[in-house]
């Protein structure tokens, strides 16, 4: 196994636009260029800078782990390397020669094979056809087909002890077998650089270990791999070198010999001075009767049950890396998704009675409001005016004898627009508003229902900084008036400063509950990766 | 009944065979002369344009992305008009030249549709509605009035039969099926299916999605060209308005054939049998002497019933979820 460790040790920061000077390291072979090299890659979507300056290199035989928290630009970088997105700036080289990765086809032809986080199969095709999808010419001779089938069969049996039959329709397979298929497809392409974006999430231990063994074998034969995983243990056993991204920039490289979970977590989270928004003045209610209770809610099969009790005036944060169950949990609370097991109750303070949430409609009726994450798909109707968007769920209130009084609606809108600090321009189509103002319209819509519990799904996503702070102030104001808030957030800062408690999810279970004051960046990021820091007391109420 | 037979009957194609057989029997009871040799040839001639139009509708639907070719009817009508009013007019009477030109014309129309959809990024239903209107209009420009004068090969296709029971016209649908089987073997059909099944999976696997779509629409155009030849054979003349009616029938046949209108699922045999069933229903209604005022209503109701019978949900299909969404 030719592991290229060592030559990077003294260079914690990435080399930008490295020419031949890159390999000045003492142990490197003279004239050796890395197998793959990306330098200064940048990509923006409108005003959002997903990648600012990402650089990394992979040598032949090397497995490099790409690390970063949500929104650090990992996925954007992967899409750039695979030809799905075109970078705004930056160079990508293979064997020192620059590449133009215009399409996935071009990337594959250059030997860069990507297995995406999303399981991309053509469900109507057979397993064999899926494995060879898009490979080479569509015209195949009989003997070529036989060879392809044999090779597909071989690679599947390498990965899985009980491989799916080649003739099976891929859409009929379970998720793990589909994942095996997309990994097998990647391996069949004889990659020179294999980019693996969270491909182990559905694999069981046996298949994962078989896959890792095969990956090591391929790398020993001269391939390179860029490996992304949310599991620290996997990363630590597999990778030779670690590259961390933060806010779209490469912030450091760590060699295997120096890597510890703690050091990596520090590298990912950064020691940046957190913005000072102390909320010490706020009283944190602990004595009032709870308003929302989740009882032994199991998010997905196999996950641990989650307990949550929320009191009026509390802000509870839901945290975790993308796809670890926090989103499902919030949807379960909102009645949008049935839990695998367990129940959600809304409690009435006066009568002390508990009513189970059985559907979204019942949740709304009981005084819950849910602000979705995907504004475009679930929240805002682009073509309708702000006023119409605002009044959708509460229009009935403005009806007198069955006829809606528009003036009443407008009056209510003006009042609530004031609450959320939105300039009331009722006639403008909501699609033309900025992201922040769209969010305010949706918030005003739900505040109009006077909710007792406000469920927020990453409400500050794609919202500018000033508006973010306005929203924080709004949330604090609401809780001061007794509204309970459960808020999913992908921003660590929000969990550190805004929340009274944070529930951290990993693999569908709540792995840690951190109370305000006990939460620090490192503990939070460590919990994201399933690493529990024992120095911390498990806080919160049951 | 044996479980296996029950299970087999769940397949759309199997149900269509049963429907078609029942309809043949019903027709034979009402009009016993159906099985005479000359009648069989006449039936085949009537059926051929519809069957080919249905087959022409298959590739675009299969390629997904809301794929649909509304222009199938006018395209075959336009080929019919051009055969008589342009080719025959200019003395191109040879089958060896005329038939390839018809196919080429169909391919051209299909390619225009494909370019609009794959590269112009237009919604297929709108793009092909546009070509529907253009071709309908062009047919009237080229030939304002219906008229005779079809080349001799048209009547050869229509009149002759091998051994009295195998009408010559069947060469055309048989040719389509052979061509399709060949493309399947070459792996091209698989590419169209892949693109229709999940275009992002296909794209990220290196499939050139627009080229595949363009190819699918062009292939549909080729089949529409053959349908135009069948229409010329049937009428032995040209009618600028005859083609349009085939569009909706073709789409109905594709749906009845069990092909998913969302793409990625289905073959050629289903729509072909779907066309046969549609044709037999029409035939039954006219030989049963249903009032011409009611015939449309009854036809529509029977079509709806047939579609319902044939769209029972497939069992055992798991919903698709991504890893990020969890199970």
TrEMBL record, chain B:
<feature type="transmembrane region" description="Helical">
    <location>
        <begin position="293"/>
        <end position="312"/>
    </location>
</feature>
<feature type="transmembrane region" description="Helical">
    <location>
        <begin position="269"/>
        <end position="287"/>
    </location>
</feature>
<keyword id="KW-1003">Cell membrane</keyword>
<feature type="transmembrane region" description="Helical">
    <location>
        <begin position="70"/>
        <end position="88"/>
    </location>
</feature>
<protein>
    <recommendedName>
        <fullName>Autoinducer 2 import system permease protein LsrD</fullName>
    </recommendedName>
</protein>
<feature type="transmembrane region" description="Helical">
    <location>
        <begin position="165"/>
        <end position="183"/>
    </location>
</feature>
<dbReference type="InterPro" id="IPR001851">
    <property type="entry name" value="ABC_transp_permease"/>
</dbReference>
<feature type="transmembrane region" description="Helical">
    <location>
        <begin position="214"/>
        <end position="234"/>
    </location>
</feature>
<feature type="transmembrane region" description="Helical">
    <location>
        <begin position="12"/>
        <end position="30"/>
    </location>
</feature>
<keyword id="KW-0997">Cell inner membrane</keyword>
<feature type="transmembrane region" description="Helical">
    <location>
        <begin position="125"/>
        <end position="145"/>
    </location>
</feature>
<dbReference type="Pfam" id="PF02653">
    <property type="entry name" value="BPD_transp_2"/>
</dbReference>
<feature type="transmembrane region" description="Helical">
    <location>
        <begin position="94"/>
        <end position="118"/>
    </location>
</feature>
<keyword id="KW-1133">Transmembrane helix</keyword>
<feature type="transmembrane region" description="Helical">
    <location>
        <begin position="246"/>
        <end position="262"/>
    </location>
</feature>
<keyword id="KW-0812">Transmembrane</keyword>
<keyword id="KW-0813">Transport</keyword>
<feature type="transmembrane region" description="Helical">
    <location>
        <begin position="42"/>
        <end position="63"/>
    </location>
</feature>
<keyword id="KW-0472">Membrane</keyword>
């Amino acid at each position: 196994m030719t592991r290229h460790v060592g030559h990077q040790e003294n260079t914690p920061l990435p080399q930008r636009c490295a020419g031949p000077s890159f390999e000045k390291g003492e142990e490197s072979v003279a004239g050796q260029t890395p197998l793959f090299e990306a330098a200064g890659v940048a990509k923006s979507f409108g005003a959002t800078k997903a990648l600012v300056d990402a650089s990394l290199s992979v040598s032949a035989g090397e497995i490099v782990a790409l690390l970063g928290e949500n929104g650090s630009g990992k996925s954007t970088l992967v899409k750039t390397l695979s030809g799905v997105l075109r970078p705004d700036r930056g160079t990508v080289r293979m064997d020192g020669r620059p590449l133009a990765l215009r399409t996935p086809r071009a990337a594959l032809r250059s030997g860069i094979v990507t297995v995406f986080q999303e399981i991309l199969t053509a469900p109507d095709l057979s397993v064999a056809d899926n494995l060879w999808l898009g490979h080479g010419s569509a015209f195949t001779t009989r003997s070529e087909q036989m060879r392809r089938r044999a090779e597909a069969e071989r690679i599947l049996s390498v990965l899985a002890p009980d491989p799916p039959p080649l003739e099976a329709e891929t859409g009929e397979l379970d998720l793990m077998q589909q994942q095996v298929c997309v990994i097998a497809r990647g391996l069949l392409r004889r990659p020179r650089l294999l980019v693996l974006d969270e491909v182990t999430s559905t694999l069981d231990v046996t298949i994962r270990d078989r896959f890792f063994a095969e990956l090591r074998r391929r790398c020993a034969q001269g391939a390179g791999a860029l490996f992304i995983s949310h599991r620290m243990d996997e990363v630590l056993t597999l990778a030779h070198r670690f590259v961390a991204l933060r806010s779209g920039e490469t912030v450091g490289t760590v060699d295997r010999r120096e890597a510890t979970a703690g050091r990596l977590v520090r590298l990912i989270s950064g020691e940046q001075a957190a913005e000072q928004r102390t909320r010490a003045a706020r009283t944190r209610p602990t004595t009032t009767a709870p308003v929302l209770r989740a009882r032994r809610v199991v998010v997905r099969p196999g996950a641990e049950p989650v307990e949550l009790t929320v009191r009026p005036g509390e802000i509870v944060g839901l945290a975790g890396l993308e796809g670890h169950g926090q989103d499902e949990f919030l949807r379960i609370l909102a009645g949008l998704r049935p839990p695998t097991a367990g129940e959600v109750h809304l409690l009435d303070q006066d009568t002390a009675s508990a009513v189970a949430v059985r559907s979204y409609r019942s949740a709304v009726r009981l005084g819950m409001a849910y602000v979705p994450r995907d504004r475009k798909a679930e929240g805002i109707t682009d073509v309708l005016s702000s006023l119409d968007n605002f009044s959708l769920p509460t229009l009935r209130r403005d009806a007198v004898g069955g006829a809606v009084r528009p003036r009443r609606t407008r009056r209510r809108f003006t009042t609530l627009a004031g609450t959320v600090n939105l300039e009331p321009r009722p006639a403008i189509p909501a699609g033309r508003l900025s992201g922040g103002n769209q969010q305010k319209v949706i918030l005003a819509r739900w505040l109009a229902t006077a909710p007792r519990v406000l469920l927020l799904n990453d409400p500050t996503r794609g919202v500018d900084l000033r508006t973010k702070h306005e929203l924080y102030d709004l949330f604090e104001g609401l809780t001061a008036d007794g509204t309970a808030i459960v808020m999913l957030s992908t921003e660590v800062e929000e969990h550190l400063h805004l929340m009274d408690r944070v529930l951290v999810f990993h693999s569908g279970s709540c792995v840690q509950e951190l109370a305000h004051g006990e939460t620090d960046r490192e503990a939070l990021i460590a919990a994201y990766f399933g690493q529990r820091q024992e120095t911390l007391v498990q806080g919160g109420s049951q | 009944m044996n479980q296996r037979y029950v299970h087999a009957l769940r397949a759309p194609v199997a149900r269509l065979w049963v429907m078609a057989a029942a309809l043949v029997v019903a027709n034979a009871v009402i009009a016993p002369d159906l099985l005479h040799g000359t009648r069989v040839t006449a039936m085949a001639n009537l059926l051929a344009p519809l069957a080919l139009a249905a087959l022409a509708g298959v590739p675009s639907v299969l390629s997904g992305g809301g794929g649909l070719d509304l222009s199938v009817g006018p395209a075959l009508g336009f080929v019919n008009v051009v055969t008589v009013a342009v080719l025959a007019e200019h003395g191109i009477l040879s089958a060896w030249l005329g038939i390839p030109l018809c196919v080429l014309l169909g391919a051209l129309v299909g390619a225009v549709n494909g370019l609009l959809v794959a590269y112009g990024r237009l919604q297929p239903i709108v793009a092909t509605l546009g070509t529907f209107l253009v071709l309908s209009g062009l047919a009237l420009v080229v030939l304002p009035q219906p008229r005779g004068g079809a080349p001799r090969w048209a009547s050869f296709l229509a009149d002759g039969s091998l051994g009295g029971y195998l009408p010559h016209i069947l060469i055309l649908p048989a040719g389509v099926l052979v061509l399709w089987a060949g493309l399947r073997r070459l792996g091209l059909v698989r590419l169209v299916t892949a693109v229709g099944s999940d275009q992002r999976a296909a794209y990220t696997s290196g499939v050139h999605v627009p080229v595949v779509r363009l190819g699918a629409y062009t292939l549909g155009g080729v089949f529409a060209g053959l349908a135009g030849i069948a229409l010329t054979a049937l009428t032995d003349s040209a009618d600028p308005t005859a083609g349009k009616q085939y569009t909706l029938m073709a789409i109905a046949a594709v749906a009845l054939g069990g092909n998913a209108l969302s793409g990625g699922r289905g073959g050629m045999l289903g729509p072909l049998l779907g066309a046969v069933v549609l044709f037999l229903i029409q035939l039954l209604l006219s030989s049963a002497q249903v009032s011409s005022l009611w015939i449309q209503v009854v036809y529509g109701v029977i079509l709806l019933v047939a579609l319902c019978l044939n769209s029972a949900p497939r069992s055992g299909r798991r919903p698709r979820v991504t890893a990020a969404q969890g199970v």
